[in-house]
User: What shape does this take?
Amino acid sequence: MYCIKCGVELSKGQTICPICETKVYHPDIEPEEVAPKYPLKPLKTEITSKHGFLAILSACFFITALFLLLADLLILGWESSHQINEWWEWWLAPLNYHIEWSHYLVGAMLVIYASLVVPSWFKKFYSVLCASMVFGSSIIYILFISWITEGWWWFLPFALPTIGFLGLITIASIIICEFLPGYRLVCIGIAFLLVSGFVIALEILINLVFKGSIYVIWSPFVAVVLFAVSVILLCCAFIPSFRASLKKLFFL
Ligand SMILES: [Zn+2]
Assistant: This one.
């Protein structure tokens, strides 16, 4: 017996074609009750334990971080600034050890860990969590660096608003694209529009904070390109015929 639609050979008792899902019906043959030769539901192929893998990855991260801190502190951070001559002066010994560079490296490792590994622990909202962690941990890390280097003068007027603004746009876009698929084009179009304005503000901010004067050189060129992209996206979102012709043009 063969499928009337795709012609594949069918075994006895099959009621639906396994290829094209056409119903098998023959007026003279009564279908037999035979167990199907292939499983009706797809088999679960996930055999590795995700949480086990994440636990090992986390352990590797923290052991490496600890190793770096100790290596910096005990081997390279030794500096005998406090001379120990008498036995009672031994309490000064720990002051001879200090951290030189490892806190920067460990901080960067924590940013990577928070951005890539932490969201994997959760079953849902991976992309939203990932974006929140990238921007959140970056702000904390840069805050830490500015605290050590007394860089408040660039952190508060420049780094915090820049990363904060980009983070908010990115997270809002991801949430809208994920949960309101009908508004994807509008959302990405508005995001491009905001970023095109942001680029000019960014250049003004850089020149103001680091050079002390207000002027723009390169940002309008970037902004024009981003603005054009946003106009195309918004046209696509609001004019269905324009969207259809673009789809044909780019074979989408
Ligand atoms: Zn068929």
